[in-house]
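Pasting as-is:
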Amino acid sequence: MRARILGFVQSLREDGLAVSVAEALDAVAAVAAAGVERPVLREALAATLVKDEADRAAFDARFEAMFPALGASKASAPKKRGGRGMPSGEGPGARGRGGAGGRGTPRRREEPPAAAAPVRAARDDAREHAAARERRGDAASASAMRGGRRRILALPFREYTALDLEEAHAVARELAARLRGRLSRRTGRARRGRLDFRRTIRAAVTLGGVPARLRFRAPRPGRPDLVVLCDLSRSVAEASGLLLALLAPLGRHFRRVQLFAYVDHLCPVTLEGGHVVPDGPLDLHARSDLGRVLGELAAAERVPLGRSTELLVLGDARNNRLPPRADVLRALRDRVQRLVWLVPEPRARWNTGDSVLGLYAPSCDAVVECMNLAELVRALLRLL
């Protein structure tokens, strides 16, 4: 049924209805909760997929085509009556014939097997055709979902529409689950330590090789701290929101995680329901001032900036001709374990206009171009 609903969603999009990935997932959840009885199914899908009442007619037409009523049969034609309002075979002559059926009891006519066989064959053919249509619909909907996912992964951040951004956040939630699984496997290996083959063989020699008790190297140091600094100015806000969406579910794999956003001031943020929620004043229409933000980060209290800290910055390093503070970034790098800068604009634009990335780059362990969601995920896979 899930694939059938996704096929229905795709057909609505082909009819011109704007249905986002999040609304499609809501429709699947609504049907799972309400049930698949046809009237209930219709209203559950309409409640989640129809945003404008003007689209209801197109929705109903497509629903009738995709979910036709099954089991409806024509009303049986009235039996021919003989004599004076008596059913044929029940007239006075019939009553006069006793037979095995008793006085006045009509004889039951059974359909010969030869006549029933074509009906069964027709039903079987109809079922096969319906199953084939459903398989084709499932394959088409799955292909459409894969195609939409590939498009969102490769679409540059600067070309996002509001619908693209919503779909990108849905894909980011799926990718965040994969990143969480990757970190879980790595954390398990770190707790146990790697197999020390040499020590295992030496210990087994005294026992003739049987039994062999495995020896492991000392596990790696504990989980690191993570500090993230994201530019929320209009030019790169989409990339920052997606980065936070990818990192939000990974908190338990770090000892401490602190997320900050900035335009002209440093602001702690959290991510709730896929939306960035500031924990302080944040003017999204201000002029970017990264130099001031770096100074505020360096002076902030209770921010884990130590030798076990990974500092991750996302921004285009455009400073509106205000004084850059490369010296502050260099001091921050000396305090942390690693500093990585993600740049959501093409390399050809680096150090053009008011960009001062060239002043900050020497203090970074890596400066990575991240123009779309796929490149952002690849960068995180290399860093985490």
